[in-house]
Every structure is written in structure tokens, then in C-alpha cells.
Design a protein that fits this description.
alpha/beta; Rossmann fold; 4 domains; four-stranded antiparallel sheet; three-stranded parallel sheet; RNA-binding
RNA sequence: GGCCCCAUCGUCUAGUGGUUCAGGACGCAUGGUUCUCAUCCAUGUAACACCGGUUCGAAUCCGGUUGGGGCCGCCA
């Protein structure tokens, strides 16, 4: 082995192996993140492998969803493979095993297998299939309905998990494991082992739910005489009831979060902290900092509950940190073309509005319902305008008079406030300011009336106050 | 049922035998800042599952109990 080969054999390669049977979910996204970071940190490669051996359930649309999601999150992979395009490779390995009689055809029906399992469980035994077809000589299996299994073993399988330490399984409890439906159709564990070998994967970083697959895969590796990679099994992301996060928790796809107006960086930041921390109080991480600080050793062993409140907090914080240019560009995606037309007439309008709304947004999509009153006449109601105060119409009258006296060109928030303040102090701030604000926005919650009035302009502000007066009388 | 994994505030977690009657963050509560909401600030709330051992000393090490989770497919 020359030096270059030696180096190459030590090269770090990780992979994400989603099956395109559903959209990209948070769990998969986090696995992707950890694999991505680990590879990048070590100058290695991050490979995307689409595990689409199940033709029935795989769907190109899901593959696209996964690709789009990863792209949005900024987790670029170095290479992509599809298992559906690698049948010949699996076939070769399978033939080798079959020829050596390490693997064999099993003709038991699903019903027989199910009955066997039930019986074993009733007898409090480990459910497994030890097949008595191992030595059947029939070569005409083509006209029978069989699958290919790997002859079992009774050794103890040990492996060293990078996160959990040594894990031991009794292989005899596994039985003869199914490795392929037929020569052309490998099953998950088999295809996975071969690809990890062929793609020279050095570290398999995946969810804890794969721990029970690991001894099976090691058995296959032994049969094939190929090397076992390093394994690191990540704790699961849990729903509020502490069970594995799934659709029933309302778990939505990454692209759905995108649509709702979560920021990729906020999501990544939240997700990386689910089961990992840098060992100190730091919570905000730019991507570069993630690459710098992440380590497998600091990964937690227990599962982590997905807490949407904290995600929202991260998102709020990242929105606050966002540049106005970016915020403007991203929020534009959520508003109607009529509004956009108005913004095009007055380029500064959207920036002014955003300046006010920036600290209020949880997710970008909220922008629409928050700022409608800048573009459309608000729906006013007596009860909203009057709130708990009396003399509302006099206050509105006076407010109107004071505002009228301000010059159109100096109709700015500061001036408006200055002009109105003494009166508001005298009558009670709330008494004067609440109806003023409600008249402009039609909302119980909104930014302050001075800033809103400035953006609306003198003419529109007075119009709305007049309208409010009509409604109370 | 079998096997495997796990166990600090409601949630995410710091903590690797003593400096911790356990620190941070989210959430929640209270108060403050020019009406409301949000921001911002201050304060508060709340946890080492249990029982044994080891040790001068245990959240930290060991054993057990309990609890939770994962897997047990001709899915991945």
C-alpha cells in the first residue's frame, strides 16, 4: 500500500441514506447536519445515498423534497447515489454468497413466518426465523416464491459505538436474516452494507433506531469479509409525549417549515442543540462555528423532545439579526401582488413597515396578517375603539385637530408625538392613544400610533380618524 | 413477550468525586421602560427517579429497582 492509498483509506466519509418514502423530516435533517459537519471538519466527504430499493413505496417527489430541503439548509453533499441504479453491484455480492452457500433460498410463506413469530412470542422467546431450507438443493427456485437469507450464527456480536460505547448482541437471537427478495432486489441491511463498503464510508452516523440493525449488518460484513465502519448512533428526536417524533405529533417536513417562514439558520441552530452542546453556555452558532465546535463526544445519549417554543425563539432572534435587505426580500414572498404594487410606487414603504414589525415576528409568514392595515382600510368596531375609556369621540376630535395643525411635510413620528403628548398626559395616555392607534390599525395589538401615522401619511391618518368618529357616534 | 438503549428544572442542557443546599437557555410569573402588543431590562419559578454499595466525601463510580424509549417486516 503506498502512502496515497493509505491516506485515502483513512479518509473520512459520511453518508445520509434517506429512503424517499416521505418528505425530509427534522430527524433526518439533524442526522444530515451531523454527518455533514463531521465530514467537513475532517476534510472528508459527505455522500447522499437515496435508499430506494423499495420500488413500491419510493417516490421521485419525495426524493425531490429531500434534495430541496437539504439545499435550503445548505447541507451540500459531494456525491449522490441511488440504490435503484446499483442493482448489478448487489447482484454480484449476492451471487458470491449464494455460490458459497452462505446465503440460501427460503420458501416459507409470510403466513408461516407470522405464525412462527406469534408462537415464539407466546413462548416468551426471541422472535426469529431459523430456516430449515438451508440445505434444499432445488435449483429451480424461479418458479417458487422465496427470499434469500443469510445463514445465522451463534456468536456474540460486539461493536463500539462512538456515542454509547460497547454494545453487545447475541447473534443467535437474530436467526437467519433476510438479505434480498431475489437476486435483483436486495433488502435494506444488505444493500446498506455493500454501499457503505463500496462508497468507502468510514463513519456511519445515524439514528438510534438503527442500533438493532447494526449486528445484522456486521454479520453480513463478516460473511462478505469486509471491514466494519465506525458507528455512531444519535439519540432520537422525540414528540411531546416522548415517543419517536412522527407525523402523529404534527411533525412536518423541512420544506413545510420553510414555507411557514422559518429561517434555515434558525432551524439548524435549534436542531444542532437537540442532543448536542458545546460544553458551555453558547447557544447561537453560525455555520462556521458549528464546524469549529462540534464533536461527536459531546453528543447526548438520551432522546430530546422537540420544543417548538424554543425553535420560535431562535427564529425570532435570527429575524432580529437579519439585514433589512434580506428581510425585505424574504417577506415579500408572503404578500399579495396588490401590496407589492403599492410598494413599488414607494420603495421605502416596505422598509419602514418592516422596521416596525421586525421585533414582533415569530415566523415570516405572519407578516401578512400583521401589516394589512398599511395597505387596506382597517375594519373598525365600536368596542375596539372605545376599549375601556369614555369620551372617546372628544379625544378623537382633539387628536384630529392637533394632527391637522402639523405641516404635511413634517408629519413624522417624533413631531406627531410631541404635538399630541401634552394632551395625552392631561387626559390619560391610554384614553387618547388607544383610540388613536385603534383607528389607524383596527387592531388590539400593533406598533405605536405615531410611527404608524407617519407611514400612513397625514391625509390617510386624518381620514381614518374621521372614519373612527363616524363609527362611535 | 424478547433483545438493546437511556435517565439533572415543564423542555433543551452544564456538571466527569470535593470550589454546586446544582449553573445557563426556552417557557411561565412579577415589576420597570412614552396606550396595546412586541422589543429591552430586572427579579422570580422549577430538577439530580428510587434503593443499596464504594469513598473521609457522590448528581458524578458500581449493582439493583422503577420509569421511559427503540427494534423485533419479503420497510428503510
Amino acid at each position: 500500500m503506498n502512502f496515497l492509498n493509505f491516506l485515502n483509506s483513512k479518509k473520512i466519509r459520511t453518508r445520509l441514506a434517506p429512503s424517499p418514502t416521505g418528505p425530509l423530516h427534522v430527524g433526518t435533517a439533524r442526522t444530515a447536519l451531523f454527518n455533514y459537519i463531521f465530514a467537513r471538519q475532517n476534510n472528508g466527504n459527505f455522500i447522499l445515498r437515496i435508499d430506494d430499493t423499495d420500488k413500491e413505496r419510493s417516490d421521485k417527489r419525495f426524493e425531490e423534497d429531500i434534495l430541496n430541503g437539504l439545499k435550503w439548509l445548505g447541507l451540500e453533499y459531494d456525491k449522490i447515489y441511488r440504490q435503484s441504479e446499483r442493482e448489478d453491484i448487489y447482484k454480484n455480492y449476492l451471487k458470491k454468497l449464494l455460490d458459497k452457500k452462505i446465503a440460501f433460498w427460503c420458501y416459507h410463506s409470510k403466513e408461516e413466518l407470522a405464525a412462527e413469530k406469534t408462537e415464539q412470542m407466546n413462548k416468551k422467546e426471541a422472535p426469529r426465523h431459523v430456516c430449515n431450507h438451508k440445505n434444499i438443493k432445488s435449483l429451480n427456485h424461479k418458479n417458487k416464491n422465496g427470499i434469500i437469507r443469510l445463514g445465522g450464527s451463534d456468536e456474540k456480536i460486539k461493536f463500539n459505538d462512538l456515542i454509547r460505547g460497547e454494545i453487545e448482541y447475541d447473534a443467535s437471537l437474530l436467526g437467519d436474516i433476510a438479505i434480498a427478495k431475489d437476486e435483483k432486489t436486495p433488502l435494506y441491511n444488505f444493500a446498506s452494507v455493500i454501499d457503505d463498503e463500496e462508497m468507502k464510508i468510514s463513519h456511519v452516523i445515524r439514528g438510534e433506531d438503527h442500533i438493532p440493525n447494526t449486528p445484522k449488518q456486521i454479520l453480513i460484513q463478516k460473511a462478505l469479509k469486509i471491514q466494519t465502519p465506525f458507528y455512531a448512533h444519535l439519540p432520537l428526536i422525540l414528540g411531546p409525549d416522548k415517543s419517536k417524533m412522527s407525523k402523529r405529533h404534527g411533525s412536518i417536513s423541512i420544506n413545510e417549515y420553510k414555507r411557514m417562514g422559518y429561517l434555515a439558520q434558525a432551524l439548524l441552530n435549534f436542531i444542532i442543540l437537540l442532543g448536542w452542546n458545546p460544553g458551555n453556555d453558547k447557544e447561537f452558532f453560525e455555520k462556521e462555528e458549528m464546524l469549529e465546535l462540534f464533536s461527536l463526544q459531546k453528543i447526548q445519549k438520551g432522546g430530546a423532545v422537540f420544543n417548538i417554543e424554543k425553535l420560535n425563539w431562535f427564529n425570532r432572534e435570527y429575524i432580529k439579526k437579519m439585514s433589512m435587505g434580506k428581510l425585505s426580500q424574504h417577506t415579500m414572498e408572503y404578500i399579495s401582488s396588490e401590496w407589492k404594487a403599492q410598494i413599488n410606487k414607494d420603495k421605502k414603504l416596505w422598509y419602514k413597515i418592516l422596521e416596525l414589525e421586525k421585533p414582533r415576528l415569530n415566523v415570516l409568514s405572519e407578516i401578512k396578517e400583521r401589516v394589512d392595515f398599511f395597505f387596506e382600510k382597517p375594519q373598525l368596531s365600536r368596542s375596539l375603539l372605545i376599549h375601556t375609556f369614555s369620551n372617546t369621540s372628544q379625544h378623537l376630535d382633539k387628536t384630529e385637530k392637533i394632527l391637522s395643525s402639523i405641516d404635511r411635510h413634517s408629519f413624522g413620528a417624533e413631531n406627531i408625538k410631541k404635538a399630541l403628548w401634552d394632551y395625552a398626559e392631561e387626559k390619560g395616555r391610554g384614553n387618547v392613544l388607544w383610540p388613536f392607534r385603534a383607528a389607524l390599525t383596527g387592531k388590539a395589538k400593533s406598533p405605536d400610533p405615531f410611527s404608524v401615522a407617519e407611514i400612513l401619511g397625514k391625509k390617510e391618518t386624518l381620514k381614518r380618524i374621521q372614519h373612527a368618529k363616524e363609527i362611535i357616534t
